[in-house]
Every structure is written in structure tokens, then in C-alpha cells.
């Protein structure tokens, strides 16, 4: 079996330098690193991470726990986390499981143990959730992304503020019949987020004297979810002229539904989202832009700082969502009357 | 420090049984497992995976290498792999990096080493790719998903056949001007897949005596990619009446583009996909259905078999794609003339 000493000898460096160069843990001059890696490759040296772990007490692995990878926001956060961990030479252990599934239960019961990982990034686990208590027992640093996580560091946008801005944008355009579309209690990993966004919408409506017109059409926060809910909302007698989508996927579903119903966006109905999803531009969607990849990177920074210094107080990194006005929104007095509205007039 | 012997004593079982119950490696009666887990929890026992690894020579970790998690197919395969690994009590180490990025280079150089993982599932690494040679050097079992992987086991659908079936469906409806939309050489992790699908389309066209009408409009295989390419193809003088999308995302982009151009789907243009994406039903998309989650599960089965018995010959699991006819396709003689077509007539 090839040992680190053999690699060091061939590369003409000390064992400590060879070890540092291969672990990527500390700085080694690029030329030296290259020489060591070449020596290791020519000797087919495979360092035993198990042995490294026993020696240092570190696993060099970070756990990432999330409800799903198949929604845009979650996939983007994950890719941001991955990119940052690769830079630090750390492995990413993924635990992806929808709430309420046997896999979820098994992950919490069997996998969330301290010595598997040096720290955990928990995406979409909310403070009200009893699962947080179970996570605390792993006794390793945890950083949350999305939701509220007392006692742990957190990366998030101000969801209340983002939805308030989206609603205010529609109100400033003269819209009065504005519904909040999407979000429901059983949304995996985002129930608090959706509650905060609904609060932001309600605040903006109330501040404009429209508290009595507050209206929530709940739906799964997906494109098909937004589509189905919008078919109902836009097909009803009291059709709104403005829709605040809980996220871009719901807003895009609403735009697709409107077009299928023969309604113009923004001519008959104005729609806003929150995200700046990769499809937002294609649908000319006015939205509050957030950067989930940056949230993933920020979570890694917070986590590594706490691993280095466990006495560090938990902190919150609040990222700003920025309004991007595209052409899914239009001033009410520039809008055309939709077919079948209450005044009986018909659009083009 | 709490040892396994303490847990065994409290649970009233042997050390071997306690170890088996906690590792999930072998069968243990459910009542026994529960007693051991409760004992471990009350003692706050955390097994050292490093020590376990040194003792058994196994890491209990499986690597998953893929170009991206933010495309539907890849995210679904990943969730299928995750669910299967959790059942076996195995950790998933994710290596997600787009080809051509520094992260990709770093992952191949520093992370693909045998003793980090017991085996690797490589999604979207193709046989022609020099990266395959580098992967072979990790000297652990590898199973591929998507593409061709000589010397390793593979899970895939027959891409040539799937595209042939989609094209034949349009030809049987009487369409003659049928283009192939999407797919290009730089598509991350799917260039061979797209080449095979184009081959299937070409074969069906040629068999119908339409070899001279073969037409490829390349585009990134995403919804916005399909949208942009379809705007070009449908806005041109020689507008096709049928579109074979390289995948559902491209086909859906084409439907969105057609509607924006004022064309009816399927009234003016028929569109097919390959996937059965979660949006397919919302767009009434006729498609060839594949089950990427099942492909992920099958990859885990193949990999674990090879880890148990490394002498096992590589095998290929070819899954069938099934035609699902929805209403994005229509017989040519039932179609309406599109506005601005060469005969000068106008649709509704």
C-alpha cells in the first residue's frame, strides 16, 4: 500500500506539506501542490479519509438537508452551497426528503448524527417545527436557509417586505382588486415563508385602505398549482385586475392560465412574482429578485465560521429582494376591459 | 464517551446486534432495532463513522456526479437515487458541476478518489468524454445514467427509439413538414442523448420518404431555449406543421412561443416532447414518458450489486419510453390554416 511518505519522497517535500497539498485544507504554493498531486497520481495514492477523520476529529463533510431538489429555489441554493464547498475542499452530503415521507423520518432518525458531518445547512426547516429540536441534538453547527431558526444562524430575504413591495407596485398602478395567489400550510419547507409573504400583501392592502378586499387563493407553490388557482380566480365573477403570486412559479402559472382564458397580460390582468426565476424574462414577469445561489454561498460562509469558532453567536444574513419591472404589470387606466367583466364591455 | 457496548448493555442485546441495528446494514427485527435506537438516544451515543470505515473498509457513502440539479430530468434522477440510498442506510455525496467550470475541474482532480466513497453514480458523463477515463481511475464500481458508458453498467431509455416514435406519431397524423427542435453539442451531460434522438427523428423521416425535409433547429434544451428557437422556426416563411422537441422543456417552450405568435396548438402546429415533465399535463403535451426517478433507483440497485460482487459483469438496464397522446397533436387534415401561410388563407 502506498503511504503519504512515499508521495512526499517522490515530490521532494515533507510529509506535512504533502498531506496539506492533498487535503486542500491549508495554503500550499500552486507549483508544490501540482508536484504533490502528480506524485500521488503516478503512485496511485488514495488517502484514507477515515484515517484523516480519526486523526483530526473532522469529517471534512457538510450535510445539506432540504425537502426537495426539484423546485427552482431549492435547486439554486443547493448549487450555490455545492460551489462554495468545492472551493473549500469539503464534501457535500445530501439529505433530500419531502416532509411526511418515510424517507424523511428515516433521515431524522438514522442519518442526523454528529460524527457524519462537521456541520449542517438546513433548508426549509422552520422554527415552529419539532424537527428543529431533533436537529439541535446532533450537537454540530447548523445554519438555516429560509424560515426562522432561533439559536442558529440564518440566511433569508425579508419575505414580508418583498410581498409588500410587489403589492405596493400594483396599488401604485391604480389596481384595487388585487388577490394573493398561492401558498398553503402544507407547502414543503416554505409554510412560514408563505405566511410572511401573505402578511406583507395584507399590510400593503390595509395601508391603502383596502383591508376589506384582502383575498387569498391558496394553491401549491408550483407552476401547475398557480395555473389551476388562476383558472378559478380569473374565471370567477369578481375577477381581479391584479395578482400577487407567492413566487414566480405561481405567477407564471397565472400568466399561462390567463392566456388560455383569452385574457391579455398585462392588458386585462397584471401579475407580479417573487424570485426572478430563470423563466421570468421569457414571461416578461415583474418580480422581486432574490439570489438563491448567493444565499447558498452565504450559508456556507456562516457555517464554516461557526465550525472554526463554535463560541460565535448565531447571526442572521438578510438579503434584499430588488423590484424588477417588466411588462406583466400595467397601470389600471391603461388596461383594457376584459371580456365578460361586470360592466359588460369587451376587450379586443 | 459512550461506547457501543454501553448501548448494547442497556438494550439487552449483543454488541454485534446493536451495531447492526444502528448501521442499518443488515436485517434486525423491528422491535429489537427500536430498543437499540432508544438506548442509543437515551445515552446520546454517536457512532464514529470514521472508526466504522477503518474497521470495515467501507465508507457507507455513494458519490453522485452530475452536471446540474436545476433541470427536471437531473433533479428527478437525484431524488430517485436519494430515496433508494436512504432505504439502504447509505449517505449520498453530491458532486454537481457544469462541464467547463473550475468547480468541475476541481471535483475531478481532488474529489474523485476511491476511499471517499464505495461507488459512484455518474449522470450525464458520456463514453466519448475523456472524463470517463479519469473516473475509471478511482477504481470503484461506477454506474452511468444517460449516455453510453462502456465497461460500466448503464441505466437509460432507448433515445433513438423514443424520438422515432414521436416523429412517427406526427407522420401518421399526416404531417410532412416536421422539424426537430433543440439539442446542441454543448448541452451539459446530454450531447449523446440529443444526437441519438436526432438520429431517431431522421430515421423516421427517411423511412417515410422525407429524407430531404429533415431539418434541425438547434437550441439549449430548456424552456427558454425551446421558446427562442420556436419563435425563429414558426416565424419563418417555411413554417413547419409539426415540431419534435428534443425533450419536454423544449416542446413546452415551443408551445408558449406558438401561442405568443398567435398560433393555435394543435390547430396550426402540432408539438411532441420526450419526458412527461411535471408541466406536460398543463400544456396538454403529447410525449414519450420516461421515469427518471425509477432510473435513479435502478442505478442504485446495479451499483450495490457490483459493490457486493465486483466480479459482476457490467449490464445495461434499458427502460421503455411510452407514448402518451394528449392534445398538442392533431391530424393535418383537421388542422386549420395558420395566419400568413403560403396559401394566403387565415385561421380563426
UniProtKB/TrEMBL annotation, chains A, B:
Residues 2-56 form the HTH lacI-type domain. It comes from the Bacteria. Pfam families: LacI, Peripla_BP_3. Keywords: DNA-binding, Transcription, Transcription regulation. InterPro entries: HTH_LacI, LacI/GalR-like_sensor, Lambda_DNA-bd_dom_sf, Peripla_BP_I. PANTHER family: HTH-TYPE TRANSCRIPTIONAL REGULATOR GALS (PTHR30146:SF109), LACI-RELATED TRANSCRIPTIONAL REPRESSOR (PTHR30146). This is LacI family DNA-binding transcriptional regulator.
Amino acid at each position: 500500500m502506498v503511504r503519504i511518505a512515499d508521495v512526499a519522497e517522490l515530490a521532494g517535500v515533507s510529509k506535512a506539506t504533502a498531506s496539506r497539498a492533498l487535503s486542500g485544507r491549508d495554503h500550499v504554493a500552486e507549483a508544490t501542490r501540482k508536484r504533490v498531486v502528480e506524485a500521488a497520481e503516478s503512485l496511485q495514492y488514495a488517502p484514507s479519509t477515515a484515517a484523516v477523520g480519526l486523526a483530526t476529529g473532522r469529517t471534512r463533510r457538510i450535510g445539506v438537508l432540504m425537502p426537495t431538489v426539484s423546485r427552482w429555489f431549492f435547486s439554486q441554493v443547493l448549487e450555490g452551497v455545492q460551489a462554495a464547498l468545492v472551493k473549500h475542499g469539503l464534501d457535500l452530503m445530501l439529505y433530500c426528503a419531502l416532509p411526511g415521507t418515510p424517507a424523511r423520518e428515516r433521515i431524522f432518525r438514522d442519518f442526523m448524527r454528529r460524527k457524519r458531518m462537521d456541520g449542517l445547512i438546513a433548508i426549509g426547516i422552520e422554527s415552529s417545527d419539532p424537527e428543529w429540536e431533533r436537529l439541535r441534538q446532533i450537537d454540530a453547527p447548523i445554519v438555516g436557509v429560509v424560515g426562522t431558526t432561533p439559536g442558529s444562524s440564518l440566511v433569508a430575504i425579508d419575505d414580508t417586505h418583498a410581498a409588500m413591495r410587489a403589492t405596493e407596485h400594483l396599488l401604485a398602478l391604480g389596481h384595487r382588486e388585487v388577490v394573493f395567489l398561492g401558498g398553503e400550510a402544507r407547502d414543503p419547507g416554505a409554510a412560514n415563508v408563505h405566511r410572511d409573504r401573505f402578511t406583507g400583501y395584507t399590510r400593503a392592502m390595509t395601508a391603502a385602505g383596502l383591508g376589506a378586499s384582502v383575498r387569498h387563493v391558496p394553491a401549491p407553490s408550483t407552476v401547475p398549482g398557480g395555473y389551476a388557482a388562476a383558472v378559478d380566480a380569473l374565471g370567477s365573477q369578481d375577477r381581479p385586475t391584479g395578482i400577487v403570486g407567492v413566487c414566480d412559479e405561481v405567477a407564471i402559472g397565472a400568466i399561462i392560465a390567463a392566456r388560455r382564458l383569452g385574457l391579455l397580460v398585462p392588458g386585462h390582468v397584471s401579475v407580479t412574482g417573487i424570485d426572478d426565476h430563470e423563466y421570468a424574462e421569457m414571461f416578461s414577469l415583474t418580480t422581486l429578485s432574490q439570489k438563491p445561489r448567493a444565499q447558498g454561498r452565504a450559508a456556507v460562509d456562516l457555517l464554516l465560521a461557526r465550525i472554526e469558532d463554535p463560541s460565535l453567536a448565531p447571526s442572521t444574513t438578510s438579503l434584499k429582494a430588488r423590484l424588477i419591472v417588466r411588462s406583466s404589470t400595467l397601470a389600471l387606466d391603461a388596461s383594457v376591459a376584459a371580456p365578460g367583466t361586470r360592466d359588460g364591455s369587451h376587450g379586443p
